Automatic annotation (TrEMBL):
InterPro entries: aa-tRNA-synth_II/BPL/LPL, Biotin_CoA_COase_ligase, BPL_C, BPL_LPL_catalytic. Keywords: Biotin, Ligase. The lineage of its organism: Bacteria, Bacillati, Actinomycetota, Actinomycetes, Kitasatosporales. The keyword Isomerase does not apply. It comes from Streptomyces lividans 1326. This is biotin--[biotin carboxyl-carrier protein] ligase.
């Protein structure tokens, strides 16, 4: 089912202008700025509230006939999910909550694991240009900002398969979240990090244009992370590298070591105290201290 696009409706059940510091997004304006002949983005829908944009877009893709380049944006999510099915919520219009459908037919499926990392690079690049705030990436899917002298998470990325030939990538970014609205003390937002621009319209356009650029490079190189420049760029912006970390692995196992590289498969390589290098492909990473 195609979601009802209510971003431009004056009859929304909520007062869209109840928080003048957080104006609503306009699907019409976003389409005008992003959808073009020969471009990646074909459709941009904005809904006032949903459970999860990722779940909605995966379900729409399963119905068939949904082309690559669909973007679904929500002003508010009631059942947003991160990695490992963690739940999180945020006030309406306080951030960017969106999902995109990609179908990288030219890329071998084993290289699709780079898509969350590619999205992280694109998001960080787009936000730095538009918001003027320094961002860093925590492997594999977190966006970090500095608030005061403290490193905090301001965003996350979740990739899910959509049938045999598609991937839905969800992005959540805290934009104007105030200190008293933080879900946990270690969370952050672009506003708290001193962003020069917290207008979500140009922020979203900047992120999606950056994602289109990086996705085009990666797809044009057949998904080769080195040839596309993705591997080097990710490593340069990854705050995890050079740190002592603890990897909390499936099966209640953990591994401690220095994060020394991101390999060609997108895995984090840890140098352990035993003198061996071990790649980690899945798990939670805890930054312990600077190496």
């Amino acid at each position: 089912m195609t979601p009802r696009d209510s971003s431009d409706s004056p009859d929304s059940p909520r007062n869209r202008w109840s928080d003048l510091d957080r104006p609503p997004l306009s699907s019409t304006a976003l389409r005008r700025g992003l959808v073009r002949d020969g471009g990646l983005w074909r459709q941009v829908d904005v809904v006032q509230r949903t459970g999860s944009t990722n779940s909605d877009l995966v379900a729409r893709a399963a119905e068939g006939g949904l082309a690559e380049g669909v973007v679904l944006v929500a002003e508010e999510q009631s059942a947003a999910r991160g990695r490992l099915d963690r739940q999180w919520t945020a006030p309406a219009r306080s951030g960017l909550f969106f999902s995109v459908l990609l179908r990288p037919a030219e890329v071998p499926v084993p290289r699709w694991g780079w898509l969350p990392l590619l999205t992280g690079v694109a998001v960080a690049t787009g936000l730095s240009r538009v918001a003027g705030v320094d961002t860093a990436l925590k492997w594999p899917n977190d966006l970090l900002v500095t608030v005061g002298d403290e490193e905090r998470k301001a965003g996350g990325i979740l990739a899910e398969r959509a049938g045999d030939d598609g991937v839905v990538i969800g992005v959540g970014i805290n934009v104007s979240l105030r200190a008293d609205e933080l879900p946990v003390p270690r969370a952050g937002s672009l506003a708290l990090a001193g962003a020069v621009n917290t207008d979500r319209d140009p922020l979203l356009r900047g992120v999606l244009r950056s994602l289109e650029d990086w996705y085009g490079r990666w797809r044009g190189a057949g998904g080769d992370p080195a040839a596309s420049g993705l591997q080097g760029t990710y490593a340069a912006g990854c705050a995890t590298l050079g740190r002592m970390v603890r990897a909390e692995l499936p099966g209640d196992r953990s591994l401690v070591g220095e994060a020394v590289a991101v390999d060609g498969d997108g895995r984090l390589v840890l140098a352990t105290g035993a003198g061996v290098q071990e790649p980690v492909g899945a798990g939670d990473i805890v930054h312990l201290r600077l190496a």
